[in-house]
Amino acid sequence: MFNIISIAFRYLFILLIYLFMFGIIRMIYLDIKGIRKRSSMGSTYLKLINRRDELPFKVEESYSIPSSVSIGRSNKNDIIIKDPFISKNHAIIEKKHNEYYIEDLNSSNGTFVNNEQIFNPIRLQHGDTITIGQVSFIFVNELSK
User: Fold this and answer.
1) Distance between CA atoms of 145 and 10, rounded to whole angstroms?
2) What would the pLDDT profile of 48-95 be if each residue is shown by its tens digit?
3) 62 CB burial (10 A radius; 0-12, 13-18, 19+)
4) Which residues contact 103 (CB under 8 A, 6 or more apart)?
């Protein structure tokens, strides 16, 4: 009887090891897939900090930022995030004189840069953390590294 239980635990342990290895391989695959997508995006983008599977709504891993990008819940925005804590027209990121600025559009819950709520347009720097609703991004500007 003890021998059967020992064999069952042995196979269960091997199965857990294979599941763990499968999870790591899947994470590596998704990371490589994200790198390929990012390289075709351009040099300035927002990179999601949150884990996508923990958010109750759909959000992309990264968003390209051309000269101007609006963020909000409404379908009229360039970046649409269906988070209930994000206003219909929440914020805008604009490029002025080769620098990017973020402005809160009088949203209900505010826009935060580096954990500080913004009230006026401020200049974004490479590595700044932007929090809108439940979603946090890192601002990546490869030209200003």
Assistant:
1) 51
2) 888 777 778 888 888 889 889 999 999 999 999 999 999 999 999 999
3) middle
4) 91, 92, 93, 94, 118, 120, 121
pLDDT at 56: 82
User: Which CA distances in Å does 36 have to 1, 31, 42, 81, 138?
Assistant: 53, 9, 11, 23, 18
| Six token digits for residue 45 | 């983008």
Read off the pTM.
Answer: 0.68
Tokens of 90: 């929440």
